[in-house]
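Lab channel / #folding
Pinned by the channel admin:
"Please post every new chain as: sequence first, then the structure tokens as a reply. Keep commentary short and put observations after the output so the thread stays searchable."

First post following the new format, from NK:
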Amino acid sequence: MAKKLLEVETLDLLDVIELIGMRPYPMKDYITEYIEEIKESKRLEEEDKILKAKELLEKEAKDLKEAKEGKDGKATDKKEVKSEDESEDEDKNKDHKDNKDKKDNKEKIEIK
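Reply from TO:
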């Protein structure tokens, strides 16, 4: 049980049953129904995760295909496709360098 707690933050009734087994005496009907609801809920969550992952992969494949085909003004084949963040970083670095050059020139003028 301790190993399982290291993997996840909390354990639910299904985890406990999985780890130590069923109770030696029968459970009440409402608990059995609750366990079945939890199992169904977990199954649906897993299916939802799988569907979302598939959709994401399909979208990424479509975007990659469009980039290769040169749609939407994107670069093709051997040209590098830059993200907006990379472009912004380059602009910031250029501005920083320009400001530094201006400051250096001002210091040179003041020294003379």
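NK: The chain has two domains: 2-81, 82-112.
TO: also worth noting, Residues 74-79 have pLDDT under 50 and may be disordered.
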